[in-house]
Design a protein that fits this description.
Strand content: under 5%
Helix content: over 70%
Structural class: mainly alpha
Oligomer: single chain
Distance between the termini: 32 Å
């Protein structure tokens, strides 16, 4: 039995996908914002056929870089790396591309997130 099995099917699917995408433990939440996030965005949109999680993640990283969404990039970049969707080289290439399309300051912020992600993963492998 899974930890979300006592929840409605849509919420269960949403929370499971959130854990898969974010790479950390989720708990059920309350309110309309959480409902739309779990039940619609993750249960429905992230589970649609046609794009892989990696495809969605690449699009999201580009959108976040273009709109200044550094706070969410600090979640998405490490999660993509941990899930094996984007390796060290791919993340560094994204950084270079984003510098030229989203601006050097945003590229610098992405670079800091990328290098921190890579360093933490290396330290974890060594431990």
């Amino acid at each position: 039995m899974g930890k979300f099995d006592d929840l409605p099917e849509t919420r269960r699917r949403g929370l499971e996908k959130m854990e898969e995408v974010y790479g950390f433990e989720m708990t059920d939440g309350v309110g309309d914002f959480f409902r739309y996030t779990a039940d619609h965005l993750f249960a429905d949109i992230w589970n649609r056929p046609g794009l892989s999680n990696r495809d969605r993640r690449l699009l999201l990283i580009g959108l976040l870089a273009g709109s200044g969404g550094q706070d969410v990039l600090t979640i998405q970049i490490p999660a993509a790396h941990a899930a094996g969707e984007l390796d060290d080289d791919a993340l560094r290439e994204i950084t270079i591309l984003m510098c030229h399309y989203a601006g050097w300051p945003m590229g610098s912020r992405i670079n800091a997130i990328v290098e921190d992600t890579i360093a933490k993963a290396a330290k974890k492998r060594e431990a």
